[in-house]
Amino acid sequence: MKRLLTLDLNDYTDDMPVFEKHTVRAIILRDGRMSMQLSGKGEYKIPGGGVEGGESHAVTLEREVREETGLLVIPETIEEIGEILELREDVFHKGVKYVCHSYFYFCDVREETVPTQMTDSEIAKGFHPVWEYPEVICRANDAIQTQLWQKRDTEFVRMLLNGSVKRGE
To answer: I want to staple 59 with a disulfide (CB 3.0 to 4.6 A). Which of 24, 55, 107, 154 is the partner?
Structure first.
């Protein structure tokens, strides 16, 4: 998969043990808006999450979208976009280098929805599914950007806005 961007905080050393994570992110567009998760603080997050033991990216994408948004991915519409790589010291384990591969995919969803199944952390932060315009997402996240994931998602949305990523390429 092609690399779209590398976000490197350079706050680690090469001799640190490495924790590596692989995640998928769903880009779902409808009527000019994107399917997103919105927190109680006003942060927008692209739906997706970690690949679990032996899952394919497609299966992970379907599961994460269903859990976080209640939307049902149409498997045959999944289209590879690219990867954003994040490098930093792990915020939960000091002295460990965190390497996160986020793989982005376009996909369409069915009209029907199911109840969300958010994690306790997502519920505590007030995350809920919304449809929003990309310009609004960027403005809101720029105003409160404190986490690297916010920068990752905002930079991806900017790539959509400036046309550097497009469906069907």
So the answer is: 55
